[in-house]
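Please fill in the sequence for the structure shown.

STRUCTURE ENCODING:
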């Protein structure tokens, strides 16, 4: 039975969290007030690697005119003099079970717990001394205190359970840090690692990193210089910019066919550009060139939107007209940097050939290959030629990043994912939900709606399937033909505005993403932020969700997809466990973090010296530390 309805019951009043509750870690502002030195920790079990990165980061900051003080964080004064701290035996070690096995909540002997208080107290004293020193010698320069290791390492080293006294002291100290960097050395497949510490230590660091605020992981697979530059970029994002004279502000232009305010052709890419433009408008004059049914310009959220009148030509012809007009518009819109969100089917518009300013290509679709498989038209040939014109390219996931680097080996390719609003997980709702949700555009082939209906019809899970989204009249008719003649419990809601979307995500049991082609899957991230598992095909572009409450099946295997749907629909406990993992993973993809990365890239191109605009070299080498 298929039902077409237009909405859901109204949203109940939101639950008010208790006073002082905050998502993402310990409450409290970082730093120490205006003008206070930035406090940065480099954490991780690889002490040789963290020490090297602290030294390299200090050199790079001093070259840019910062006043820098470094603090050795490898334990307290007792640890540095006697390097073997007291510890308790774990289960299975010689000597029989220790106190931890008899009293897990104690986690070790009294001397070990007292030692943790000494360690965190000693660290705070050394931080205070370094701050006083660096402020005295700064002379008006921006000051930074770098600690080799930090509170994150203390929590892992002492094996402290959350909520205990010493753990609260370490967490409070972590809350005063402006940034904690966790450069991850990737272990080998045999679980031992080529030169790094055991994977268990990395797992403990990652577990605590998810609980602490302002903790950022760095990819250890890059070359040493790339790791140091990535760390420097993270520090520079925390430096408050100096107020600029409105008459001398730099100008940034952004182009995208879709408009976040136009429901006819609004997608995840338009939302990313809208958030990015608002963030850039805090520091620059921003103009967004987009498509519309009529021409003109409008000021929205401090951003000037210029609409090209191509919307009346239809979705396909309108995109082609937009790409033809874009190089002409780029000659007339003044800009110091241009950020171009590629427009399918040809993606690139060859803007670097007509603009004298730096051009950043933002590949949010990577759809030329998919269109070739669908229509057998070689759009990818234009994309391959066009990508070689760009020196700076942004992609949404590592799989697309690898593909773009092969096509344009001289480009500086960066991975900047989508973002989501941070939300506090509601333990009472984990594992709950009344229906299976599909949320996305109605495009039968690309989003795999035909595969989803086949899987749902085969498995017959004991839950209703809700399809929410809008598409072209032809695609909506195609969906109607697919549903006709099937005895299925399916609701088709049509276009979902923001309020309806929030209610759907909150009340659903889990999300299904049966796409044949994806670049990131923003709707999956939004569902994860609500603590909902995501069922999807194992596409390379969606592997950022691995271990984050997702459930994968082989690509386009509808039988396996249906079996997984039925398993999730009948097991609330499984949904609860996966939902918690999903909620914790989503906390690493906030809009503030993602838009800050676009701001750092734009600042480097607009305000940095000429040498800072060159692409980084040798990104394929691994970060190897010397033991």
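FILLED IN BY: designer on duty
SEQUENCE:
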């Amino acid at each position: 039975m298929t039902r077409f309805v237009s909405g859901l019951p109204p949203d109940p009043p939101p639950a008010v969290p208790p006073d002082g509750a905050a998502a993402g870690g310990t409450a409290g502002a970082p730093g120490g007030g205006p003008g206070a030195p930035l406090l940065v920790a480099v954490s991780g079990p690889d002490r040789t690697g963290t020490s090297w990165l602290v030294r390299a980061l200090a050199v790079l900051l001093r070259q840019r005119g910062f006043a820098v003080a470094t603090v050795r964080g490898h334990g307290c004064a007792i640890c540095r003099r006697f390097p073997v701290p007291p510890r308790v035996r774990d289960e299975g070690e010689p000597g029989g079970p220790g106190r931890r096995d008899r009293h897990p909540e104690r986690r070790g002997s009294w001397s070990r717990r007292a030692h943790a208080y000494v360690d965190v107290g000693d660290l705070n004293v050394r931080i205070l001394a370094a701050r006083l020193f660096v402020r005295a010698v700064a002379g008006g320069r921006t000051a930074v205190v770098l600690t080799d290791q930090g509170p994150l390492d203390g929590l892992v080293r002492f094996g402290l359970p959350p909520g205990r006294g010493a753990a609260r002291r370490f967490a409070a100290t972590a809350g005063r840090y402006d940034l904690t960097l966790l450069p991850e050395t990737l272990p080998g497949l045999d679980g031992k690692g080529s030169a790094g510490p055991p994977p268990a230590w990395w797992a403990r660091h990652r577990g605590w990193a998810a609980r602490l605020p302002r903790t950022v992981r760095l990819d250890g697979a890059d070359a040493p210089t790339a790791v140091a530059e990535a760390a420097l970029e993270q520090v520079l994002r925390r430096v408050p910019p100096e107020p600029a004279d409105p008459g001398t502000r730099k100008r940034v232009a952004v182009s995208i066919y879709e408009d976040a305010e136009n429901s006819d052709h609004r997608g995840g890419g338009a939302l990313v550009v809208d958030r990015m433009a608002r963030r850039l408008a805090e520091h620059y004059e921003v103009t967004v060139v987009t498509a519309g049914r009529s021409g003109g310009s409008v000021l929205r959220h401090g951003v000037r939107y210029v609409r090209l009148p191509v919307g009346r030509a239809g979705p396909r012809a309108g995109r082609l007209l937009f790409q033809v007009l874009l190089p002409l518009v780029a000659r007339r819109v003044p800009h110091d940097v241009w950020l171009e969100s590629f427009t399918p089917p040809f993606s690139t518009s060859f803007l670097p050939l007509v603009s004298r300013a730096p051009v950043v290509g933002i590949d949010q679709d990577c759809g030329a290959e998919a269109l070739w498989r669908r229509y057998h038209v070689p759009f990818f040939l234009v994309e391959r030629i066009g990508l070689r014109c760009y020196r700076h390219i942004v992609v949404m996931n590592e799989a697309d990043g690898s593909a773009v680097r092969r096509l344009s080996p001289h480009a500086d390719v960066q991975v900047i994912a989508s973002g989501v609003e941070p939300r506090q997980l509601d333990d009472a709702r984990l594992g709950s939900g009344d229906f299976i949700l599909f949320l996305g555009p109605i495009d039968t082939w690309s989003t795999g709606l035909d595969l989803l209906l086949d899987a749902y019809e085969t498995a017959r899970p004991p839950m209703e399937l809700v399809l929410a989204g809008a598409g072209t009249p032809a695609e909506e008719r195609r969906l109607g033909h697919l549903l006709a003649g099937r005895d299925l419990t399916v609701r088709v809601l049509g276009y979902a505005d923001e309020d309806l979307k929030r209610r759907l995500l909150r009340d659903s049991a889990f999300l299904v993403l049966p796409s044949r082609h994806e670049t990131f899957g923003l709707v999956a991230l939004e569902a994860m932020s609500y603590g909902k598992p995501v069922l999807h095909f194992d596409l390379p572009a969606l592997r950022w969700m691995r271990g984050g409450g997702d459930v994968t099946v082989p690509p386009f295997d509808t039988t396996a997809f249906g079996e997984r749907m039925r398993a999730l629909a009948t097991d609330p406990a499984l949904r609860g466990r996966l939902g918690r993992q999903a909620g914790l993973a989503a906390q690493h993809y906030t809009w503030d973090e993602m838009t800050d990365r676009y701001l750092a890239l734009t600042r480097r191109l607009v305000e940095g010296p000429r040498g800072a605009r060159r692409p980084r070299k040798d990104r394929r080498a691994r970060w190897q530390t010397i033991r």
